[in-house]
Amino acid sequence: MNKSLNPPQIPEADYEGTERILVPPKHITLAGAFEKKEHSWFIDSHVPTDLTIQVEGVAFNVHKCPLLSKCGYIGRLEFHPSHSNFGYELELENFPGGSETFELILKFCYGLPVGLNPNNIGPLRCASEFLEMTEEIQDGNLISKTESFLTLVVLSSWKDTVSVLKSCEILSPWAENLQIVRRCCDTIAWKASREKVIRDADGQEGWWFNEVATFRIDHFLRTITAIKAKSTRPEFVGKCIMHYAERWLTGMDVEFEGLRGYGLGKDDLRFSILNSSKEDGGYEYSKEQKAIIESLVSILPPQNEALPCKFLLRMLKLAMLYSASPALISELEKRAGMMLKDANVNDLLIPSYYNADQGKLANSPEECMMHDIEVVQRIVEYFLMHEQQEQQQKTAKIAVSKLLDNYLAEIAGDPNLSITKFHVLAELLPENARTCDDGLYRAIDTYLKTHPTLPEHDRRRLCRIMNCDKLSLDACMHAALNDRLPMRTIVQVLFSEQVKMRTVMQEKESPSGDSSEQHGNHSSTDAEIKNLKAELENVKMKMAELQSDYSELQHEYERIISNKQKNVSGWSLGWRKIKNSFHTKVEENETGGNQQRTNPGRRRTTSIRRSSIS
């Protein structure tokens, strides 16, 4: 029986896109309609049925003749007598498209109208191949009709092609063997490579990205691979990958904001993503997430401009959470290192996971750290290697130095952070990378505040990282009154500030080229010089008194050692005198203004040389 393929008609309400109706001649229609009773389908016909076909637990009571005339596969089968009626029984296992598709096949075999649309053309094409509905059995059979509709109608429309590809997710391996998936992916890639389509996709709607993000991961990989082969812009490919990750990966929108009081929400920081995965299926869900992450990383465009650094670091966090392969994690670290100058502090706050896939917490201090320091260390090292190879401008190093100092200040509040890890991370950058050490000083001060029991030699070890000559005036004033710093560091800060003041005074006193401008600014310059001189005298007095207290402290210590006494009251007395001298000088400066103070018993008139301080 030949069936004609009519022109496109208006789709029914249940379908989207193009639809065509296969309408046979009325005089050869053998049945009126199908009737469903519980889990069985019956043909409304005056002729008794003689065959029962089971498809996914649904029984179809039909006649053998219409099926044998069109299905070569059924004609080759050996029928078994039915135990429930006088006919035969047949079970079709792994039938493409299930019972719904088989119902459409029966309608076609009985000569009833069958509507072809993008949602059912894939299952019908695979089912017709399964049943061997070829032209050798009958002209105009279902294979040729579905193939024509797929090639000439569906693949000419972008949205219809997307619908067919999504319907193929339940048709493996038939859809792969019939090249339906490949043809759909190639069609999407060809359309995506056109400039007009790319401009439309970059518009406000972004419907194309949303459609592609609904694909199964293997079909998405095939589509992106085909798009990349068409030499499409890497930014376009990167946007596709970002949309897909945001849709399928749990935790891509989680923003870690560091320590907001240790012990408050610590478990939430570690398990905010992990708990959600447990609720959605546990181990199988984690395995699926891991597969998606590894697949997406394998198709990342090599160009740096394709993906932002924030996205790469978020992918790195999830890869570590779901225990991805070390090679994949290393690849993400390298990519993030090459773009580190575009990151912010929150991007680098990578939680420290311990057996995260089993949901176990660590017990040792190293494992209980809030953040994974070693990952950031490797990322910075990759940045330095890339910077050395590419010979980037100094601005990149300056940006990374500020980022690293802010990161150090953020993690310094972790009580479990060892001084060795902090020290190694702070010394990663070369000395010329930092133009100002205020951020590094803030990080060191935060660490000392969080670890009040740190030994004196460890305090000196930390402070040696900092260059006092690169501290601003505000940082120097804060450091001079900071009792957490070692005495040697405080003296170095004061001496550095004295040198800076002297340099500024010399620049102010040097003659200028324009005499008229000198005359106009003469009064303001004199006032500034006077203020600087007064401040310099105050600094000299403070340094002299500190040197005196330091010498008395040394004599006291030597006396204790010589007498072999175990009492350390002398040390306490000496440090108390130093602390009191600091507070006394600050109060006198605030009340006395710029007036000169005279103290015949304590004042020193000699300058302190650099050698005596160091």
TrEMBL record:
Pfam families the record matches: BTB (PF00651), NPH3 (PF03000)
SUPFAM superfamilies assigned: POZ domain
Region spans: Disordered: 503-526, 585-614
Annotated BTB domain residues: 49-118
Gene3D superfamilies linked to this entry: Potassium Channel Kv1.1, Chain A (3.30.710.10)
The organism's place on the tree of life at top rank: Eukaryota
Keyword Ribosomal protein carried by entry: no
SMART domains linked to this entry: BTB
Residue ranges occupied by any NPH3 domain in the UniProt entry: 206-500
Biological process, per Gene Ontology: protein ubiquitination
Compositionally skewed regions (Basic and acidic residues) per UniProt: 505-526
Pathways per UniProt: Protein modification; protein ubiquitination
UniProt keyword Acyltransferase, yes or no: no
Protein family: Belongs to the NPH3 family.
Protein name (database record): BTB/POZ domain-containing protein DOT3
Organism: Pyrus ussuriensis x Pyrus communis
Lineage: Eukaryota, Viridiplantae, Streptophyta, Embryophyta, Tracheophyta
